[in-house]
Structures are given as structure tokens and as C-alpha cells.
Amino acid sequence: MPLELVTIPCLKDNYAYLLHDAASGETTLIDAPESGPIFAALKARGWHLDQILLTHHHWDHIDGVGAIVEATSATILGSAADAHRLPPLSRALVEADQVKIGTEIGYVIDVPGHTIGHIAFYFPVSGLCFTADSLMAAGCGRLLEGTPQQMFESLAKLQQLPPSTLICSGHEYTAANLAFAATIDPENSALKARIRAVTRARSGGHPTVPVTLSEELATNPFLRAQDPYIRQHLGMADATDAQVFTAIRALKDKF
């Protein structure tokens, strides 16, 4: 059976996620922005936490780890490249390493750009990918440590996943990202429809994540550098895809 997914709003606009395997009773947390909402979600379901998967070292993804580990004795898994600036790891991970929840195997994907040591976790049976601040809903993370080329290559990896994959990103930035996307791809009917849907969701206080990769491919300008209309709109018809991506990222930084 697929893993059960719980999306947990944290802090002002962060998300953490719980994954639960009903057969084994095992539960995994992806990122820990703060402990309170995570404890509440576990208690409401009667689940015990077994492990924490960390995507990157930023405080708003790890601040709750200490309290959670103290209460649950959960193991901590994170990037080997970031081991020096993550909470003490039970296991350090590199690309293609496997993680397990019950009988389901997940895979580590190296996705530098937002940070150098950023990783994502892909669970193919359940069709879930936890991308945090790499591929985000309608956007991508700001390049705080990496280069545009690194982020372009990271997103290219994620684009190869099955279109039905649910992308579980780390923040509620969707409305702002879509407002920017409309300046890059203003005639995109799928984008217009997504803006309407997100407006409805947010007005009702509902999360806009996770979202299918297929919807990202249709509406996220950072995955659409090859699109002829976008290239024409930016005056970059003869540029490489990486150059178009770099230009879009620079425009977003000023938006």
C-alpha cells in the first residue's frame, strides 16, 4: 500500500511532512521547522516517530529537530555534504542512497542550488518527492549558495520523474510564485487556471502543496526554459535553455 502523507503547516509559511506505513506502523518526518505542530499531528493519529529526513541545513527546516529527537529518539538522516551544519546525523546520505519506510524504498537525489548540500527524497511506489526549497510550487528556491547552472541541472533531474509524482515542497510561496510566472508566460491558459485555483485555496486557508509534477511542467516557468513563447517573450529565442533559466531566476530575484 502507498504511504500515508500528512502535510503540516509550520511557522509562518513552512511545511513539514509525515509519511506513515500502516503495515509496519513506521512513521517518518521530512524536515522539522518547529516541534509543536509535528507533535500535535503525531498525537492526533497515535503515531510514533521513527526517523527524520532533512533536506538542507537552514534553520526553518531543522529548528524542531532537538525537541523532537529528545521526545521520540528518532534517528536523523541528512546530506553528508552538510553534516557539519546539520543536527548530529545517525546516517549521512549521498545521491542514490536508499531510505526505507516499512517496505517502501526511497531514493536520495542531489539537488544543489538553494544550498550546496540540498537533497530531495523520492518514493516511487507512493509517487512522492520531497523537494523542499529546490523545486517549489510554481517556482524554485533562491540561489543562496549555488549557481544558476547547478539549480538548472537539479531541476532537470526532477523533471525526469513520472508526471504523476506529487511534489512536496517546503513553503507556501505559491501565490507569489504564480504572480511572477504570469509576467513570464502571460498567455498560458493552464497558468491562468492555476492562479484561480490557488486564489480559492488560499482564501479558504488551504495549503497549495503538494502538487503534481505535470502541473509544474505546465505552469512553472523554471521548468519551461525550452518553451518557444517564453523564449520569444524574453527576447532569447537563440539562447540555451540554461541561459533562459538564468535570466528567469534573475528576474524573479528582482520581482
Structural description of this entry:
With 255 residues, the chain is an alpha/beta fold. It has one domain (4-254): Metallo-beta-lactamase, Chain A (4-Layer Sandwich). The protein has helices spanning 36-45, 59-62, 65-72, 148-159, 174-184, 189-203, 213-219, 228-233, 241-254; strands at residues 4-10, 14-20, 27-30, 51-53, 75-79, 91-93, 98-101, 104-110, 119-123, 128-132, 135-136, 139-140, 166-169, 211-212.
Q: Give the strand tally.
A: 14
Annotated CATH topology = Metallo-beta-lactamase, Chain A
- Domain count: the total is 1
Count up the helices: 9
Q: Could you state the order of secondary-structure elements as H and E?
A: EEEHEHHEEEEEEEEHEHHEHHH
Give a short synopsis of this structure.
The protein is of the alpha/beta class and 255 residues long. It has helices at residues 36-45, 59-62, 65-72, 148-159, 174-184, 189-203, 213-219, 228-233, 241-254; strands at residues 4-10, 14-20, 27-30, 51-53, 75-79, 91-93, 98-101, 104-110, 119-123, 128-132, 135-136, 139-140, 166-169, 211-212.
Structure keywords:
6-stranded mixed sheet; 14 strands; 255 residues; alpha/beta; Metallo-beta-lactamase, Chain A; 24% strand
Write the layout of secondary structure elements.
Elements: E1 4-10, E2 14-20, E3 27-30, H1 36-45, E4 51-53, H2 59-62, H3 65-72, E5 75-79, E6 91-93, E7 98-101, E8 104-110, E9 119-123, E10 128-132, E11 135-136, E12 139-140, H4 148-159, E13 166-169, H5 174-184, H6 189-203, E14 211-212, H7 213-219, H8 228-233, H9 241-254
Parallel strand pairs: 3-4, 4-5, 5-6, 10-13
Antiparallel strand pairs: 1-2, 2-3, 7-8, 8-9, 9-10, 11-12, 13-14
